[in-house]
Specification:
Elements lengths: L13 E13 L4 E12 L17 H22 L1
Antiparallel strand pairs: 1-2
């Protein structure tokens, strides 16, 4: 087969910001209930590429499962034939 063309790119940097909105206070148990919202902001000043860049990456978990399934089916079929 042919070889992949691989090009290293990046880094791409996002900053995480977490906001906690208190929804209830329990003075007896000294606790607070809150709802957390997480935001991610692209940091173009720290990134080598643009947020609009299109990247193609290999899905390693999918390839691993597909390979194991193929091997299992191949072995099962071979045992059935023999």
């Amino acid at each position: 087969g042919s070889k992949f063309e691989v090009e290293e790119v990046g880094p791409y940097v996002w900053q995480e910001m977490r906001l906690k909105n208190v929804t209830a206070m329990n003075d007896e148990e000294d606790t607070a209930t809150y709802q957390e919202t997480v935001y991610y902001y692209f940091r173009s000043d720290l990134s080598a590429g643009s947020e609009e860049d299109v990247l193609n990456v290999v899905n390693i978990p999918f390839i691993s499962v597909a390979t194991m399934l193929y091997q299992h089916l191949y072995t099962s079929f071979a045992n059935f034939i023999l």
